[in-house]
Specification:
single chain, alpha/beta, Metallo-beta-lactamase, Chain A, globular, 11 helices, 7-stranded mixed sheet
Amino acid sequence: MGGIYLSDVLLDVFKHQRVLLLTDLKLIFLGTSASVPTIHRGLSSVAVLRDGELFLFDAGEGVQRSFPKAKIGFNRKMSIFISHLHGDHCVGLLGLLQTMSMVQRDKPLTVYGPRGLIGFIRNNIRSLKFGLTFPLEVKIVREGLVVETRDYFIKACIGQHRMKNFVYSLEEKDRPGVFNPKAAKNLKVPEGILWSKLQKGESVEINGKIINPNLVLGPSRKGRKIVISGDTRPTPTIKRFISGADLAVLESTYFDDHQEKAKENLHMTAREAAQMASEADVNQLALTHFSSRYDDIAPLLSQAQDIHPNLIVAEDFLVLNIQYPDEKV
């Protein structure tokens, strides 16, 4: 019986003189309204999926209803990051935890957020009288590094709002450079699994001799960076934090005609978000967290697109696929 084997696939890829270590990275807007939900917009929540792992940023009320529609499973590797403890960003966490238990989630879950989050979760779970079917850990966030793995960092920056609020970033570590088959052959490295290990940045041994990956790889390639704000005014600190991002998701609660309200309530207008993203050399800007007073969000484009042309006005269940910097056309 015929078939295609993994070794055949590897060899075919190597013959094309390029192996790309590609990992899917996509972002799904689960809720894009500020403070009050509308008919078409739920409250703040953004899901980021990377290589099967889910990162949930904020959990507005009713967010668990968005999971099935977005085809996100409840029992998967997951971390939740809460920007601040205003209700439209965190109240949905309670319903989400209860739903996860109702469907018998068993995987551990870690929730990150500002001081007060532990009491918020513990006291409400006790009051609502539901138990959890999975291990839950709650960690208090401080500015700087929040999570580090072999492949990525999660970092936090403090925004300017009525209570402590965090802006989060997901930053991938650099990938190994492009594989050079000719160099590998000159070093007498057999094609197949050893080539694959070198491409992944691992050293291999040939007849007692160690072959380091730098001998067969080009310069390292940048990973991707996405940034997601909670509620905040634009600040120099945030501008530095979002610098060079492939995608920045920034709140833009108000139109230009409510500039004073934005200052008073410590939010941003679309124009202010676009200006900050432009000055920070952000590749793509997505605006979200719109006041429910606006029935038509389209005018935000005209107010901000002349400042940052690569601009998206988010809507619920919009999906964005984030490319690697070296893969952009």
